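Good morning C.,

I know you're traveling, so I'll keep this short. The sequence:
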Amino acid sequence: MATTSDIRNGLCIRYNNDIYKIIEFLHVKPGKGPAFVRTKLKSVTNGKVIDNTFPAGRKIDDVRVETHKFQFLYNDGEFYHFMNEEDYTQIRLLEAALDTPELMKEGEIVTIIINSEDNMPLSVDMPLSVILEVTFTEPGVKGNTATNATKPATVETGAIVNVPLFINEGDKIKIETAKGSYQERIKE
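The tokens, ready to paste straight into the viewer:
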């Protein structure tokens, strides 16, 4: 058993007969009244995100997990297939278990969190950023870097990302996976 002082991003807990992963938390100590922890929890079974507040010092039921590196192989429409890099076993997951499946390309290395008790995969952690090639966008305007104006661009995985006006087709861009937003253009 853990307490609210052990709460951190990525911790998996049992709550309301389901397993949730903590995606955001904030310890709050108001001037008047007891301290509490405000959390944002994501269900690992259905992907639903809920907000919850725990009183400070409350016991929480944490889930023992293991992390393993897996390589993304392919998507067959319903399932996403992954291969363990250590023993080459394969698993398949529903799209709901993935945070940003539209940014994942074949061969990408991800971290899969597995419940140690029953060896069930709980969630997939993408790298902090991915580098993808722009396959379609309106022609870029050279030198237009001073404004924050953006335009939609389709990348090689099919995802649509807002990019600055100077980005052209064929450019490689770095995308932050947590927000799905453009970070920078990659020079080769």
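Safe travels,
E.
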